[in-house]
Design brief:
CATH class: Alpha Beta
CATH architecture: 4-Layer Sandwich
Radius of gyration: 20 Å
Strand order of the largest sheet: 6-5-4-3-2-1-14
Strand content: 15-25%
Mean pLDDT: 87
Low-confidence stretches: 330-350, 355-370
Helix content: 10-25%
Structural class: alpha/beta
CATH superfamily: Ribonuclease Z/Hydroxyacylglutathione hydrolase-like
Number of helices: 7
Largest sheet: 7 strands, mixed
Number of strands: 16
Protein backbone atom coordinates (compact mmCIF):
# COMPACT_ATOMS: atom_id res chain seq x y z
CA UNK A 1 0.00 0.00 0.00
CA UNK A 2 1.65 3.22 -1.19
CA UNK A 3 0.55 6.70 -0.15
CA UNK A 4 1.28 10.12 -1.55
CA UNK A 5 0.12 13.38 0.02
CA UNK A 6 -1.12 15.97 -2.48
CA UNK A 7 -2.79 18.39 -0.04
CA UNK A 8 -2.29 18.66 3.73
CA UNK A 9 -3.80 22.01 4.80
CA UNK A 10 -7.14 22.75 6.41
CA UNK A 11 -9.86 25.33 5.77
CA UNK A 12 -8.51 26.99 2.60
CA UNK A 13 -5.46 26.87 0.31
CA UNK A 14 -2.51 29.04 1.30
CA UNK A 15 0.21 29.30 -1.35
CA UNK A 16 3.25 31.36 -0.44
CA UNK A 17 6.84 31.36 0.71
CA UNK A 18 5.96 30.57 4.34
CA UNK A 19 4.04 27.39 3.43
CA UNK A 20 6.18 26.18 0.51
CA UNK A 21 7.84 23.18 2.19
CA UNK A 22 4.77 21.59 3.77
CA UNK A 23 2.50 22.85 1.01
CA UNK A 24 -0.55 25.07 0.80
CA UNK A 25 -3.16 22.82 -0.84
CA UNK A 26 -6.10 21.33 1.04
CA UNK A 27 -6.76 17.69 1.83
CA UNK A 28 -5.99 15.02 -0.75
CA UNK A 29 -4.18 11.70 -0.22
CA UNK A 30 -3.56 9.12 -2.96
CA UNK A 31 -3.48 5.41 -2.03
CA UNK A 32 -2.19 2.84 -4.53
CA UNK A 33 -2.40 -0.89 -3.84
CA UNK A 34 -1.52 -2.56 -7.15
CA UNK A 35 1.47 -4.93 -7.04
CA UNK A 36 2.59 -8.20 -8.61
CA UNK A 37 0.12 -10.24 -6.53
CA UNK A 38 -2.81 -7.89 -7.16
CA UNK A 39 -2.09 -6.01 -10.43
CA UNK A 40 -5.74 -4.92 -10.66
CA UNK A 41 -5.93 -3.55 -7.11
CA UNK A 42 -7.69 -0.18 -7.08
CA UNK A 43 -6.36 3.36 -6.91
CA UNK A 44 -8.03 5.23 -4.05
CA UNK A 45 -8.15 8.94 -3.31
CA UNK A 46 -8.96 10.28 0.15
CA UNK A 47 -10.73 13.64 -0.18
CA UNK A 48 -10.87 16.05 -3.10
CA UNK A 49 -9.35 19.25 -1.78
CA UNK A 50 -7.29 21.55 -3.98
CA UNK A 51 -4.42 19.03 -3.95
CA UNK A 52 -6.58 16.93 -6.30
CA UNK A 53 -5.79 19.25 -9.21
CA UNK A 54 -2.08 18.34 -9.30
CA UNK A 55 -2.86 14.69 -8.77
CA UNK A 56 -5.18 14.86 -11.79
CA UNK A 57 -2.46 16.35 -13.97
CA UNK A 58 -0.12 13.49 -13.08
CA UNK A 59 -2.85 10.88 -13.65
CA UNK A 60 -3.41 12.27 -17.16
CA UNK A 61 0.15 11.20 -18.06
CA UNK A 62 -0.99 7.55 -17.94
CA UNK A 63 -4.13 5.55 -18.54
CA UNK A 64 -6.45 8.34 -17.41
CA UNK A 65 -5.17 10.50 -20.26
CA UNK A 66 -6.27 7.70 -22.63
CA UNK A 67 -9.72 7.37 -21.05
CA UNK A 68 -8.93 3.95 -19.60
CA UNK A 69 -8.56 4.74 -15.88
CA UNK A 70 -10.65 3.77 -12.85
CA UNK A 71 -10.35 5.27 -9.39
CA UNK A 72 -12.31 5.42 -6.14
CA UNK A 73 -12.77 8.73 -4.29
CA UNK A 74 -13.60 8.55 -0.57
CA UNK A 75 -14.81 11.89 0.80
CA UNK A 76 -14.79 12.52 4.55
CA UNK A 77 -17.34 15.32 4.20
CA UNK A 78 -18.38 17.93 1.67
CA UNK A 79 -17.01 21.16 3.14
CA UNK A 80 -15.26 23.23 0.47
CA UNK A 81 -11.71 22.44 1.53
CA UNK A 82 -12.42 18.74 0.93
CA UNK A 83 -14.18 18.94 -2.45
CA UNK A 84 -12.96 22.15 -4.09
CA UNK A 85 -10.44 20.37 -6.30
CA UNK A 86 -13.06 18.30 -8.10
CA UNK A 87 -14.08 20.89 -10.75
CA UNK A 88 -10.36 21.21 -11.69
CA UNK A 89 -9.70 17.45 -11.80
CA UNK A 90 -8.66 16.85 -15.44
CA UNK A 91 -9.44 13.08 -15.61
CA UNK A 92 -13.07 13.92 -14.85
CA UNK A 93 -13.44 15.45 -18.32
CA UNK A 94 -11.92 12.51 -20.24
CA UNK A 95 -14.42 10.13 -21.84
CA UNK A 96 -13.92 6.52 -20.80
CA UNK A 97 -12.57 7.13 -17.28
CA UNK A 98 -14.59 5.72 -14.39
CA UNK A 99 -14.86 7.20 -10.90
CA UNK A 100 -16.65 5.76 -7.89
CA UNK A 101 -17.41 8.42 -5.27
CA UNK A 102 -18.19 7.47 -1.66
CA UNK A 103 -19.40 9.88 1.03
CA UNK A 104 -21.75 10.00 3.97
CA UNK A 105 -25.45 9.93 3.21
CA UNK A 106 -27.30 13.18 3.83
CA UNK A 107 -30.90 13.45 4.92
CA UNK A 108 -31.72 16.47 2.77
CA UNK A 109 -29.81 16.21 -0.52
CA UNK A 110 -28.60 13.42 -2.79
CA UNK A 111 -24.84 13.09 -2.86
CA UNK A 112 -24.51 13.83 -6.57
CA UNK A 113 -26.45 17.07 -6.09
CA UNK A 114 -24.06 18.22 -3.35
CA UNK A 115 -21.10 17.93 -5.72
CA UNK A 116 -22.99 19.46 -8.63
CA UNK A 117 -24.02 22.55 -6.66
CA UNK A 118 -20.45 23.87 -6.32
CA UNK A 119 -20.20 23.90 -10.14
CA UNK A 120 -23.61 25.49 -10.62
CA UNK A 121 -24.06 28.92 -12.19
CA UNK A 122 -22.88 31.51 -11.12
CA UNK A 123 -20.17 29.79 -9.07
CA UNK A 124 -18.33 27.99 -11.88
CA UNK A 125 -18.42 28.33 -15.67
CA UNK A 126 -18.48 24.59 -16.44
CA UNK A 127 -21.54 22.65 -15.20
CA UNK A 128 -21.06 19.36 -13.42
CA UNK A 129 -22.94 17.61 -16.23
CA UNK A 130 -20.02 18.43 -18.55
CA UNK A 131 -17.96 15.72 -16.85
CA UNK A 132 -17.36 13.14 -19.59
CA UNK A 133 -16.15 10.37 -17.29
CA UNK A 134 -18.57 7.84 -15.83
CA UNK A 135 -19.46 8.78 -12.25
CA UNK A 136 -21.05 6.46 -9.71
CA UNK A 137 -22.06 7.71 -6.26
CA UNK A 138 -22.36 5.55 -3.15
CA UNK A 139 -23.92 7.00 0.00
CA UNK A 140 -22.51 5.59 3.24
CA UNK A 141 -23.83 5.14 6.75
CA UNK A 142 -21.68 6.18 9.71
CA UNK A 143 -20.62 2.59 10.37
CA UNK A 144 -20.39 1.34 6.78
CA UNK A 145 -18.15 -1.63 5.93
CA UNK A 146 -17.43 -2.64 2.36
CA UNK A 147 -14.73 -3.83 -0.01
CA UNK A 148 -13.16 -2.07 -2.98
CA UNK A 149 -11.55 -5.02 -4.71
CA UNK A 150 -9.09 -6.54 -2.20
CA UNK A 151 -9.17 -3.40 0.00
CA UNK A 152 -11.37 -3.54 3.10
CA UNK A 153 -12.96 -0.20 4.05
CA UNK A 154 -14.51 0.71 7.41
CA UNK A 155 -16.11 3.99 8.51
CA UNK A 156 -17.03 5.74 11.72
CA UNK A 157 -18.58 9.08 12.61
CA UNK A 158 -16.56 12.16 13.63
CA UNK A 159 -17.36 15.24 15.75
CA UNK A 160 -17.60 17.94 13.09
CA UNK A 161 -20.22 20.46 11.86
CA UNK A 162 -22.73 18.74 9.57
CA UNK A 163 -20.91 15.51 10.39
CA UNK A 164 -17.83 13.91 8.82
CA UNK A 165 -16.71 10.30 8.72
CA UNK A 166 -13.33 8.63 9.10
CA UNK A 167 -12.06 5.79 6.91
CA UNK A 168 -9.86 2.79 7.60
CA UNK A 169 -8.22 0.92 4.72
CA UNK A 170 -6.81 -2.60 5.13
CA UNK A 171 -4.92 -4.35 2.36
CA UNK A 172 -2.54 -7.29 2.44
CA UNK A 173 -1.65 -6.77 6.11
CA UNK A 174 -1.13 -3.00 5.81
CA UNK A 175 -3.58 -0.55 7.38
CA UNK A 176 -4.22 3.18 7.58
CA UNK A 177 -6.85 5.22 9.40
CA UNK A 178 -7.81 8.60 7.93
CA UNK A 179 -9.39 10.74 10.64
CA UNK A 180 -10.18 14.27 9.50
CA UNK A 181 -12.00 16.55 10.45
CA UNK A 182 -12.98 16.14 14.10
CA UNK A 183 -13.08 17.95 17.41
CA UNK A 184 -12.14 16.03 20.56
CA UNK A 185 -14.88 13.96 22.18
CA UNK A 186 -15.07 15.62 25.59
CA UNK A 187 -16.36 19.22 25.50
CA UNK A 188 -19.05 19.68 22.87
CA UNK A 189 -21.23 17.50 20.67
CA UNK A 190 -21.29 18.94 17.15
CA UNK A 191 -24.11 17.89 14.86
CA UNK A 192 -26.12 19.75 12.21
CA UNK A 193 -26.84 23.05 13.91
CA UNK A 194 -24.64 26.16 13.87
CA UNK A 195 -23.27 26.67 17.38
CA UNK A 196 -23.05 30.40 17.93
CA UNK A 197 -21.95 30.36 21.57
CA UNK A 198 -19.95 27.25 22.44
CA UNK A 199 -19.47 26.04 26.01
CA UNK A 200 -16.13 26.54 27.65
CA UNK A 201 -13.91 23.45 27.57
CA UNK A 202 -14.38 21.61 30.85
CA UNK A 203 -17.99 22.73 31.39
CA UNK A 204 -20.36 19.89 32.37
CA UNK A 205 -21.98 18.03 29.47
CA UNK A 206 -25.60 16.95 29.19
CA UNK A 207 -25.64 13.19 29.92
CA UNK A 208 -27.06 12.39 26.47
CA UNK A 209 -24.31 14.40 24.78
CA UNK A 210 -21.65 12.77 26.94
CA UNK A 211 -22.92 9.32 25.99
CA UNK A 212 -22.88 10.16 22.27
CA UNK A 213 -19.36 11.54 22.48
CA UNK A 214 -18.11 8.48 24.35
CA UNK A 215 -19.64 6.20 21.71
CA UNK A 216 -18.08 8.31 18.96
CA UNK A 217 -14.63 8.23 20.58
CA UNK A 218 -14.87 4.47 21.11
CA UNK A 219 -15.66 4.11 17.41
CA UNK A 220 -12.59 6.12 16.41
CA UNK A 221 -10.32 4.11 18.72
CA UNK A 222 -11.65 0.87 17.24
CA UNK A 223 -11.10 2.23 13.73
CA UNK A 224 -7.47 3.06 14.53
CA UNK A 225 -6.77 -0.13 16.50
CA UNK A 226 -3.38 -1.56 15.58
CA UNK A 227 -3.11 0.58 12.43
CA UNK A 228 0.32 1.03 10.87
CA UNK A 229 -0.52 4.69 10.31
CA UNK A 230 -3.15 7.08 11.66
CA UNK A 231 -3.60 10.32 9.68
CA UNK A 232 -5.30 12.74 12.09
CA UNK A 233 -6.69 16.26 12.05
CA UNK A 234 -4.33 18.37 14.21
CA UNK A 235 -5.22 21.88 13.06
CA UNK A 236 -5.23 23.51 16.51
CA UNK A 237 -2.92 24.05 19.43
CA UNK A 238 -4.66 23.69 22.83
CA UNK A 239 -4.91 27.49 23.17
CA UNK A 240 -6.54 27.78 19.73
CA UNK A 241 -8.95 24.95 20.47
CA UNK A 242 -10.02 26.64 23.72
CA UNK A 243 -11.07 29.69 21.69
CA UNK A 244 -12.94 27.73 19.01
CA UNK A 245 -14.04 24.28 20.23
CA UNK A 246 -17.12 24.40 17.97
CA UNK A 247 -15.10 24.55 14.74
CA UNK A 248 -14.61 20.80 14.84
CA UNK A 249 -10.83 20.36 14.90
CA UNK A 250 -8.31 18.66 17.19
CA UNK A 251 -4.81 19.18 18.57
CA UNK A 252 -1.74 16.93 18.36
CA UNK A 253 -2.33 16.04 22.03
CA UNK A 254 -5.75 14.61 21.14
CA UNK A 255 -4.37 12.64 18.21
CA UNK A 256 -1.56 11.18 20.33
CA UNK A 257 -4.08 10.08 22.97
CA UNK A 258 -6.28 8.34 20.39
CA UNK A 259 -3.28 6.65 18.72
CA UNK A 260 -1.99 5.48 22.11
CA UNK A 261 -5.35 4.03 23.17
CA UNK A 262 -5.68 2.30 19.77
CA UNK A 263 -2.18 0.82 19.86
CA UNK A 264 -1.35 2.41 16.50
CA UNK A 265 2.24 2.27 15.27
CA UNK A 266 2.62 5.75 13.77
CA UNK A 267 0.77 9.07 13.70
CA UNK A 268 0.71 11.62 10.87
CA UNK A 269 -0.20 15.20 11.82
CA UNK A 270 -2.54 16.48 9.10
CA UNK A 271 -5.00 19.25 8.14
CA UNK A 272 -2.48 21.89 9.23
CA UNK A 273 -3.79 25.33 10.17
CA UNK A 274 -3.77 27.53 7.04
CA UNK A 275 -1.61 30.21 8.65
CA UNK A 276 0.82 27.84 10.36
CA UNK A 277 4.20 28.48 8.76
CA UNK A 278 6.70 25.80 7.79
CA UNK A 279 8.97 26.82 10.66
CA UNK A 280 6.11 26.64 13.16
CA UNK A 281 5.21 23.16 11.93
CA UNK A 282 8.86 22.11 12.34
CA UNK A 283 8.76 23.35 15.94
CA UNK A 284 5.39 21.72 16.64
CA UNK A 285 6.60 18.34 15.39
CA UNK A 286 9.93 18.56 17.23
CA UNK A 287 8.21 19.43 20.50
CA UNK A 288 5.83 16.51 20.38
CA UNK A 289 8.57 14.09 19.36
CA UNK A 290 10.60 15.21 22.36
CA UNK A 291 7.59 14.79 24.67
CA UNK A 292 6.94 11.26 23.39
CA UNK A 293 10.56 10.32 24.00
CA UNK A 294 10.55 11.79 27.52
CA UNK A 295 7.33 9.90 28.32
CA UNK A 296 8.67 6.62 26.96
CA UNK A 297 5.92 6.46 24.33
CA UNK A 298 7.07 4.36 21.33
CA UNK A 299 4.61 6.04 18.94
CA UNK A 300 6.33 7.38 15.81
CA UNK A 301 5.06 10.83 14.84
CA UNK A 302 5.39 12.76 11.57
CA UNK A 303 3.89 15.85 9.92
CA UNK A 304 2.41 15.45 6.44
CA UNK A 305 3.76 17.56 3.59
CA UNK A 306 2.92 17.72 -0.11
CA UNK A 307 4.95 15.19 -2.04
CA UNK A 308 5.52 12.92 0.96
CA UNK A 309 5.46 9.27 -0.13
CA UNK A 310 5.07 6.21 2.10
CA UNK A 311 5.23 2.50 1.35
CA UNK A 312 3.30 0.60 4.03
CA UNK A 313 3.95 -3.06 4.67
CA UNK A 314 2.82 -5.55 7.30
CA UNK A 315 5.70 -4.41 9.49
CA UNK A 316 5.14 -0.66 9.35
CA UNK A 317 5.63 2.52 7.37
CA UNK A 318 9.30 2.17 6.51
CA UNK A 319 11.51 5.24 6.21
CA UNK A 320 9.82 8.64 6.35
CA UNK A 321 11.89 11.76 5.91
CA UNK A 322 11.01 15.14 7.46
CA UNK A 323 9.78 18.03 5.37
CA UNK A 324 12.45 18.93 2.79
CA UNK A 325 14.46 22.13 2.85
CA UNK A 326 12.91 23.04 -0.51
CA UNK A 327 9.40 22.28 -1.81
CA UNK A 328 8.77 18.86 -3.36
CA UNK A 329 7.22 19.24 -6.80
CA UNK A 330 5.12 16.77 -8.75
CA UNK A 331 7.30 14.06 -10.25
CA UNK A 332 10.25 14.83 -7.96
CA UNK A 333 11.93 11.91 -6.18
CA UNK A 334 12.24 12.43 -2.45
CA UNK A 335 15.85 12.39 -1.26
CA UNK A 336 17.08 9.21 0.39
CA UNK A 337 19.78 11.08 2.36
CA UNK A 338 19.63 10.73 6.16
CA UNK A 339 16.97 13.01 7.67
CA UNK A 340 17.95 16.15 9.52
CA UNK A 341 15.71 16.60 12.55
CA UNK A 342 14.76 19.94 14.04
CA UNK A 343 15.84 20.50 17.62
CA UNK A 344 12.89 20.78 20.00
CA UNK A 345 12.28 24.24 21.49
CA UNK A 346 13.13 24.80 25.14
CA UNK A 347 10.16 24.15 27.48
CA UNK A 348 9.85 27.88 28.21
CA UNK A 349 9.24 28.64 24.55
CA UNK A 350 5.66 28.68 23.33
CA UNK A 351 4.46 28.26 19.80
CA UNK A 352 2.59 31.30 18.47
CA UNK A 353 -1.17 31.11 18.88
CA UNK A 354 -3.16 32.00 15.78
CA UNK A 355 -5.41 34.86 16.78
CA UNK A 356 -8.91 35.05 15.27
CA UNK A 357 -9.59 37.84 12.79
CA UNK A 358 -12.98 37.49 11.16
CA UNK A 359 -14.09 33.91 10.56
CA UNK A 360 -10.60 32.41 10.28
CA UNK A 361 -7.39 32.66 12.33
CA UNK A 362 -4.61 34.91 11.09
CA UNK A 363 -1.02 35.16 12.26
CA UNK A 364 1.30 38.03 11.32
CA UNK A 365 4.23 37.26 9.00
CA UNK A 366 7.20 35.77 10.92
CA UNK A 367 10.29 37.84 11.52
CA UNK A 368 13.11 37.10 9.10
CA UNK A 369 16.55 36.64 10.61
CA UNK A 370 19.68 36.87 8.45
Amino acid sequence: MKLRFWGVRGSFPVPGSHTARYGGNTSCVEVRCADDSHPEAPRLILDAGTGLRRLGKEMMQGEFGEGAGTAHLLVSHTHWDHIQGLPFFAPLYQTGNRFHVYARQRDDTHLRTVFALQSDNPYFPVPFEAAAADLEFTELSDDARFNIGPVQVRCTRLNHPWIAIAFRLDYDGASIAYVTDTAPFRDILIERQFIRQPPKPGDPLHPDDAAKLKSMRDGVVRLCEGAQLVIYDTQFTPAEYAQRPHWGHSCPEDAIEIARDAGAKALMLFHHAPERTDEQLDELLARHRAQLVSNGNPLAIYAAYEGMELDLTRSGVGEILPAPSVPVRSGTTISSKPPRFVTAPEPSQELPTLEPSGPFPVVPPPKVTP
